[in-house]
């Protein structure tokens, strides 16, 4: 399993005027009638920042904490020109998306039956007319299994939180 996407939060120590931010930074998109945050996409790290007037920043698309931190530092360096007193709180990971590809294809109807019979999951759904994968939930974790063998897990911030969940349904499918 490898992390392929992260959601992180931080907060600037000052409020940000998004209308002015939109005018001074060409790579920032802001239209209050569409969304109440300015959107900044870092082309180097491929991370997107949602910047709110309160100073809150939500980052999505980072594949590592290091890339997210780099994006935040680059953004702050740019903003320091206009907001010299800007600082930020710690960067906190809120969610990670993990993926794995099994060498074997999954027989989803058969897998669905095994998983339902186990009674180990709080939510199990397989409706191929609506979604091409099998969805499993347990507490705050969600897994999506696809016929190709691909698996996506979300709802946690650490690998040690995800692995027991992953191993539980992998063992059922063997």
What does the model show?
The relative contact order is 0.17. With 174 residues, this protein is of the alpha+beta class. It is elongated and about 60 Å long. Helix content is 28%, strand content 35%. A hairpin with an 8-residue loop joins β2 and β3. It is built from four helices and ten strands. The chain has two domains: 2-94, 2-Layer Sandwich (TATA-Binding Protein); 102-173, TATA-Binding Protein, CATH 3.30.310.10. The protein has helices at 18-24, 65-80, 108-118, 159-173; strands at residues 2-11, 28-29, 38-42, 47-51, 56-62, 92-101, 123-125, 133-138, 141-146, 150-156. The two termini are 17 Å apart. A ten-stranded antiparallel beta sheet has the order 2-3-4-5-1-6-10-9-8-7, with helices on one face.
Annotate the secondary structure layout.
Elements: E1 2-11, H1 18-24, E2 28-29, E3 38-42, E4 47-51, E5 56-62, H2 65-80, E6 92-101, H3 108-118, E7 123-125, E8 133-138, E9 141-146, E10 150-156, H4 159-173
Antiparallel strand pairs: 1-5, 1-6, 2-3, 3-4, 4-5, 6-10, 7-8, 8-9, 9-10
């Amino acid at each position: 399993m490898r992390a392929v996407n992260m959601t992180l939060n931080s907060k600037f120590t000052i409020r940000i005027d998004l209308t002015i931010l939109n005018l001074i930074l060409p790579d920032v998109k802001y239209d209050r009638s569409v969304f109440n945050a300015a959107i900044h996409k870092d082309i180097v790290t491929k991370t997107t920042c949602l910047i709110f007037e309160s100073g809150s920043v939500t980052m999505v698309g980072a594949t590592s904490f290091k890339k997210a931190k780099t994006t935040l530092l680059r953004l702050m360096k740019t903003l320091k020109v206009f907001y010299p007193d800007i600082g930020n709180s710690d960067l906190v990971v809120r969610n990670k998306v993990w993926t794995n590809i099994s060498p074997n294809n999954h027989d989803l109807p058969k897998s669905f039956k095994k998983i339902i019979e186990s009674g180990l999951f709080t939510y199990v759904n397989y409706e191929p007319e609506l979604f091409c994968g099998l969805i499993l939930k347990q507490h705050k974790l969600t897994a999506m299994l696809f016929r190709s063998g691909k698996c996506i897990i979300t709802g946690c911030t650490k690998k040690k939180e995800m692995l027991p969940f992953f191993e539980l349904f992998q063992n059922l499918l063997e």
